[in-house]
What we know:
The structure holds two protein chains of two kinds.
Chain A: H1 18-28, H2 35-47, H3 50-66, E1 68-69, E2 76-77, H4 83-86, E3 94-98, H5 101-109, E4 116-119, H6 137-146, E5 151-154, H7 160-173, E6 179-182, H8 198-206, E7 209-210
Parallel strand pairs in A: 3-4, 3-5, 5-6
Antiparallel strand pairs in A: 1-2, 6-7
Chain B: E1 2-11, E2 14-20, E3 25-29, H1 36-48, E4 67-76, E5 79-88, E6 92-96, E7 99-100, H2 104-107, E8 113-116, H3 118-121, H4 128-142, H5 145-165, H6 171-210, E9 217-222, E10 230-231, H7 241-254, H8 256-262, E11 273-278, E12 281-282, H9 283-286, H10 289-311, E13 316-320, H11 328-341, E14 345-349, E15 360-367, E16 370-374
Parallel strand pairs in B: 3-14, 3-15, 8-13, 13-14
Antiparallel strand pairs in B: 1-2, 1-4, 4-5, 5-6, 6-7, 9-10, 9-11, 11-12, 15-16
Helix pairs in contact in B: 4-5, 5-6, 6-7, 6-10
The structure holds zinc ion.
Amino acid sequence: MRARLGKAENSEYPMQTKALQDLIDAFAKLPGIGRKSATRLAFYLVRQPEEVSQELADAILSAKERIRFCETCQNLCENSPCERCSKPVRDENVLCVVESPQDLIAIEATREFHGRFHVLHGAISPLEGITPNDLKIRELMARLTESSFTEIILAMNPSIEGEATAAYLKRLIEPLGITLSRIASGLPMGAQLEYADKATLGRSLLDRRTL
Amino acid sequence: MFIETLEIEHFRNLSSVHLEFSKGFNVLYGANAQGKSNLLEAIYTLSFLKGFRADRLSDLIEFEGERARLSAVVCTGSSHTRLGVELEAKCRHAYVDGVPCARARDYLGLLRSILFVPMDVGFLQAAPASRRTMLDRMVFTLKPSYLIDLEQYQKVCKQKSAVLRAENPDESLLDVYDAQLLQLGTRLLEARYEYMVLLSPHVARVFKAIFDSSCHCVPVYKSSSLFDPVVFDSDSGMIGLDVLIKSYRDALEKGRSREIARQQIVLGPHRDDWSLSLDGRQAKFFASQGQQRAMSLAMKIAEIECLRVEADIEPVFLLDDVSSELDPVRHKRLFEYLNALTAQTFLTTTSKEHVHLESIGRIFRVENGSIVHEQQ
Ligand SMILES: [Zn+2]
């Protein structure tokens, strides 16, 4: 008898070994991967020659070993401070705060921004267990007291979580007397910066409004 | 407006369905749990980008499937539009004539449907949550942007509840969510209020026409932050919208310690309720059985009339097995009314015998996820 793959929604196919089940569970914990995709990945890997798994494992471990947070902008890098933070920029006094490295790349690609970046690595979402302490907010505040920024652009996503994060940061930064602005709402609610087209995102940076 | 064709892939138990509909009555019959309501829910999802029996998008996707696809050709006047919806566990995409819509608000409203489910018949005695769902549905059918505000309001409620459940709730985070709630909640209250103002004369008129011309029946809104209910009767002079909003704002400001103690959001539009008043008395307690049945029918017809008169929209009707709930007299009345409207109607029933219609457009037999057009 053959095990019918994928029939059981919550894992535990009777004929599956524990090792395979562990691998599926590990994949399923990754963002964007459901049980079905996790199962497909696990079966694919065990059928491939051992080198494939070795290469993947090595890549994961060496990335984990070499990649760190930049001490200045908190973006991921191999050497801290990162390349971006080591180079001069045109608008030294403007800081753009983003949720993720992907958002940073999206904003950089618009060529409308020539200041510094700060990456929070997420947005506040108590429902998913993400509190302000889980983000690089402490590092942001430390950076603001040490540097001489005159404007902070809050470039969180136009989502409930992004808006909440921006509002939370506003309360923290306002007493410092630095001008705060929020990217314009030309972006659709629920849109993700990393997927927004360059023109729209560029426009929303130029049209940013002071908070 | 009416739906010409509908294609469904991997939506609940409907793996692959391709149908052509009548502009008039479409009857779907079959035993329970075969997929009749799923077809109605597919049409509903094309209208509102969400199901009417699902909490999560993933509930709408076929077991083992990764995404569901819906596509319909909708005729409004002389124009044909192809609407498409793609559902994945965590996201939804909408298309108009193959072009993706960047924002839900660009899509919502292109297909208007009015849903009639058995719960609507007993709404006066139902739980407040079901009644709220019924009201929200009426409001966003007339005003689609309300649905976007509603979904966002519900998201913020979930975030705030999560903070309240934490050991030491972060008060500055609560302030942030309260500001979001106040903004969105105010918009919900405004929309509900405006809707009830429009709906009220229709309810009064329809009830007089179908039941008793001497009885006066109007909707009532019960805010969770206001002691007195708002009676939507222009004769008796109702409490203003500003009072409603102010009481909500005050409740948010003053309710903090109570919310922290109870670890939940105590007040707000998501806790409000509504009802009907009959000659100045609460219909829920004082109306007879017959009056209550007439009221549920009057509510539905008033909802349709409100949409037709106030927005000049001819919606499609989705009747999910209401024959079993509505008594024969009221049942006949409803169908006479729908017949006269000449609107496109989709009707599910367990037996063809329950349907007494002069002119059925098309009959479909639904069995185990397959839907077959039956030649008459
Ligand atoms: Zn850096």
